[in-house]
Amino acid sequence: MKDAIKTLTVDKLNVQIYDSRQAMGEAAYMLYKKHVQELMRTQENIRAIFAAAHSQDDFLKALSEDTDIDFTRIIGFHMDEYMGLGKEAPQNFGNFLKNAIFSRKPFCKVNYVQSDATDISAECKRYEKLLKEAPMDIVSMGIGENGHIAFNDPHEARFDEPTWVRETSLDIVCRQQQVNDGEFNSLDDVPQSALTLTIPALMSSKKVVCIVPTERKAEAIYQTLFGPISESCPASVLRTHSDVTVFIDKEAAKLILTI
User: Fold this and answer.
1) What mean pLDDT is reported for the chain?
2) CA distances from 61 to 64, 98, 150 (A)
3) Residue 198 and residue 187: Cα distance in Å, rounded?
4) Nearest to 251, CA basis, from 6, 4, 17
């Protein structure tokens, strides 16, 4: 595994910068494996939340090829979902993760958001109940071009959100990112709302591994690390968590490599 080309600490946040996406993803996987194996020494099962985005591709590929982790002791969740696209829609995040990792490893259990639920409020409550059955152990996530984590976009993100799962509207930057990622052909095709885990739900996890590649994320990375800790950049809240490591490639780090 290649070494980081630069490391830094901002508040409580550990940052590792790599020369390539592949090196970034492999390094994130190695830390993730270390965390999971350490947790398994003291508890029977691990409760893990996964992000569904192409920013996670390199990490998920490495994780799917793992031969050391006992996946039969991992209970999986995902952090957001489109509602109403149809259960088999390839853009659904549950389907993305099923193809990338959930069907590739023998998980103890995977809890999917029911993307075809007609009562959104009831589905939020159902999924929140599952999340709260026991403490969350580890989350792997990205940071959006607008600084969001999960679908907590700046205009609706709340650090003190009382619920763990909610329906939220998606801002233009977030929706355009889905087009940029190749998931939709045009902005008009992207849903205007989705179900998301809230910031308190994500922050409740004992460990956070954050993977953020590409130049399109450079401004969001800069604001996450050096802007105010504010809902205007939801990812800035990661600086207050006790155990977060952010892995980025040199393209996403272009604004901070000279600091």
Assistant:
1) 96
2) 5, 13, 20
3) 24
4) 17
CA 136 to CA 43: how far, in whole Å? 12
| CA 73 remoteness from chain centre | 21
- Phi and psi torsions of 76, nearest 5°: -100, 150
Q: How many CA atoms lie within 13 A of 187 on its CB side?
A: 8
Strands 80-81 and 193-197: antiparallel
Within the chain, strands assigned E span 6-10, 13-18, 46-50, 74-78, 80-81, 109-111, 138-141, 165-169, 193-197, 207-212, 244-249
What is the C-alpha to C-alpha distance for residues 144 and 183, in angstroms, rounded to an integer? 15
SS3 content of the chain, % helix, strand, coil (to 5): 35, 20, 45
Nearest to 79 by CA among 91, 61, 97, 63: 97
The per-residue pLDDT for range 31-61, each reduced to its tens digit, is 999 999 999 999 999 999 999 999 999 999 9
Closest CA to 259 of 3, 2, 10, 28: 10
> Which is higher by pLDDT, 78 or 86?
78
Q: What's the burial of 4, exposed, middle or buried (CB within 10 Å: 0-12/13-18/19+)?
A: middle
Q: For residue 184, which of 92, 97, 52, 79 has the smallest C-alpha distance?
A: 92
Residue 195, pLDDT above cutoff 70: yes
For 172-230, strand residue ranges (E) read 193-197, 207-212
Backbone angles phi, psi at 68, to 5 degrees: -110, -30
Query: For 61-88, b where at least 16 C-beta lie within 10 A, e where not — what string?
Result: bbbeebeebebebbbbbbbbbbbebeee
Q: Report the phi/psi class of residue 84: left, alpha or beta, with left for phi > 0 and alpha for psi in -120 to 50.
A: left
Q: In whole angstroms, what is the distance from residue 92 CA to residue 113 CA?
A: 10
